[in-house]
Amino acid sequence: MVFALSVLVASGPARAVDAVPVPLDSEAIDLGPLTEIYPLYGDRIQVSTAPDAEGLVRRIEVRSQEAGRTASWAVFALRNDSDEQIDRLLVTPHYRFVGSGIVRPDLGSRRIETITPSQGFRPDRQEAPDADTFLITLDPGAVVTFVAELQSPKLPQLRLWEPDAYKDKLNSFTLYHGMVLGIAGLLALFLTVLFVVKGTLVFPAAASLAWAVLAYLSIDFGFWNRIFQMPPQGDQAVRAAAEAMLAATLLIFLSSYLSLNRWHIRVLALIGIWLVALIAVAGVAVYDAPMAAGIARLSFGAIGALGLLLIIGLAFRGFDRAVLLVPTWLLLLAWTAGAYMAATGELSNDLVSAALNGGLVMLVLLVAFTVMQHAFAGSALAHGLLSDFHRQALALIGAGDLVWDWDVQRDRVYVAPELEERLGLRVGHLDSSVRRWLEVLHASDRDRFRATIDAVVEQRRGRVSQDFRLRSADGHYYWYRLRARPILGEDGEVVRLIGTLVDVSESKHAEERLLHDAVHDNLTGLPNRQLFLDRLDAAIQRSRAEGPVRATVMALDIDRFRQVNDSFGIALGDSVLLSMARRLQRLLKPGDTLARLGGDQFGILIVSENDPHRVAALAESIRRTIRTPMGFSDREVFLTACLGIAVYDGSDRRKEEVLEDAEIAMYNAKRHGPDHVEAFKPAMRSSGAMDRMSLESDLRRALEREQIKLVFQPIMRLDTKHIAGFEALVRWDHPRHGRLNPQEFITIAEETGLIVDIGLFVLERAARQLGAWQKEMRSEAPLFASVNVSSRQLLRHDLINDIRSVLMRNEVVPGTLKLELTESLCMENPEYSSQMLQRVRELGAGLALDDFGTGYSSLSYLQRFPFDTIKVDRSFVRQNGHGAQPVILRAIVRLAHDLGMHVVAEGAETDEDAMELYSLGCEYAQGFFFGEPMSAEEARHLLLRQSQMVH
Q1: For the domain 522-687, what is the CATH superfamily, name and number?
Q2: Residues 305-362: tens digit of each pLDDT
Q3: String of b and e for 62-98 (b: at least 16 CB within 10 Å)?
Q4: Which SUPFAM superfamilies does the entry mention (predicted)?
Q5: What are the Cα distances from residue 224, in Å, to 215, 291, 851, 913?
Q6: How far apart are CA 203 and CA 126, in angstroms?
């Protein structure tokens, strides 16, 4: 059994090999295809020799030098048919790029341990650093079979060389290698010197790529081994590390040349991770060189492919650097394709490796030319423009602005030393790269600032105008405004971004104060209704989370406060409200909130007390505090107030509903008379009567629920019978009581202070609608719109700002948005009214005096007020029913014309009224005869029909 098995095993390689004839004149014979390889066969092998001249075949057995080793074997035979002795060199290289592979490539090692001939002496091993070389001697007419013990199953190449021809081949390649290494070394040294001189980031990246190529070629040509005398395994590790560094430096060059760090911060993070991984691969080469080399080769191909996509994408976006890099990258891709075909064995010519090495040097040469073209383009222009900046230096010093300059190519930021002095930083601390400079910016401003300068560099146009915060040495932040523009070089690229920095901390603080005023009452400084609701919502959420903590809301309204304004004046009324706010604030504990909800109404949020008895005691203290007389000069003011209390019970209710409960309780207290306190009861909501309490409560939410609507009544031009404009009238679409006229809720709105919000709403909507009509209905005489103004609006200091904001947000013809005011309103404070109206007129708004003839009708004051229109009350129009001459109306029209004003007559309800008004000289008329108040859409259709009739 054992004997049969041994015969079976030995029968595999027992067949005789064919002898290869060796002519005298042959320089080299490729034995690879004629050699039989037995990989991992065992520690011995039995083979049949090639037939000799007489046809005899013998059987030989060869044992491995190391007993028990599973060795690989190679068998070939040579024949000398000549009459002379032949000496030949058997050569197999340690490493050959051709056919080495991509994943876990063959990085080379010792190939042949020993060679055993079938006759004669063993071939002598010749000294060679990069190949296994044996001297073989063939006697005349001899046929010799050779059995070679291999170090590994791979035998990349096996050739039989004529000694002189092999020597000439080595000499030729040595000369070629020296030339290639010399050019690569000069390129690396040249790019390094340029980096020292120019200082641009692109040069060290290109220089690192050149040095990596030089190191790779030195290892591939064997110069590295000759210097350091490394063992074969060490040679593999160094070769794998060199390939990893070649891929890493190519990635560095691509990212720095295309400035990928300025395009996307995530791209920069990805590149950083990739570079760290390649450096780690170079370290792994010490332990597993084939794996490291495989990763490096795959990375090199991936960089080439991704680089092509980036270059194409950026080139289509007009990025000139990407366009300049196209020839270089095409050569790189061609070299990568050739290297792939050689590594996989598709190209196996002896000149393939030499051509690839030369192509690598040509690639570095093209990189050098590309970098030089980019780096030196536009330098003269950049330096020429600097002189212009120098000429502006004195102007900058006089203005107090600070210079900010970013050299894009060098990635260096320069700022005036005065900025570092103001921030308490050492001199030169801010003169660094953009990345280092960003560290001084506030964290919330960094991404916005970086995105702005990246966009300017990418687009090569535009201006930077941005505010950001800079951190001082003591940790405080100061606001600065940067205004800069890009400077382009001759190649069209941005070479620098230069501008000025201005300290805008004071204006920013003013903006913050404005934001504070937006949620606080202008008079008392207390939180307004919006902020009060926000804090109430927070208290409700906290109550739901913590359980026992309950929020208590009190709504307080001063009794008969309007009489204080009427009796003592608005100035004293404001002082009363301010004193009241201070008194109430002293009664509250930290965490509680006092707010002015509007007019003479205050809101109190109690979160410091949960005991109902203590809350009731606090309400009583508030009531007594309000009853305490207030002294102003020689006057004393006695006040009372009604107080409504609502406690949040933990149910799923909105903040507005809790406040509404307190207000309902307060209105219920007012029904019982002044100086009364009521706690909310659900039964208070069931009342369906339309009384003052429910109206006032609903009115506070009418604007939020979009229940306030505008209707427009036409005003006709009497000479053409065409619509000249509209009067904007306010209506309230109440959810229970239907549409309410102003007479039913305006008084309540004035008493509660809601008239200010309603008036601003009407003004804004009327201006928006007027602008839309004027844009759509082009005519020689543009349409106008009139809006009524209440006393609270006129006497507010914010009226000017409100009108300015409305006119800025809406495009209307100057003078066509008219504010209607009554005589009695103007005469409450004539001097102040005159000044306010003059400022309103200067803003571009028109002014109409409404209900003329029913009030003071003071001609002296009428001449002082800058009205452009007088609206005659309907009583002067309708008093003539039988054709009597309206003497008063005629006098009013003549007076208005003498003062340069137009006249609008109200109450025209018949055609006779219109004809008579026209005969008296009235330009405009308004009444039910010309149209009832209608919606904006109905008014638009009416205008369209009129326009079609005209054309």
Answers
A1: Reverse transcriptase/Diguanylate cyclase domain (3.30.70.270)
A2: 888 888 888 888 777 778 888 888 888 888 888 888 888 888 877 788 888 888 888 8
A3: bebeeeeeebbbbbbbbbbbeeeebebbbbbbbbbbb
A4: EAL domain-like (SSF141868), Nucleotide cyclase (SSF55073), PYP-like sensor domain (PAS domain) (SSF55785)
A5: 8, 22, 106, 114
A6: 45
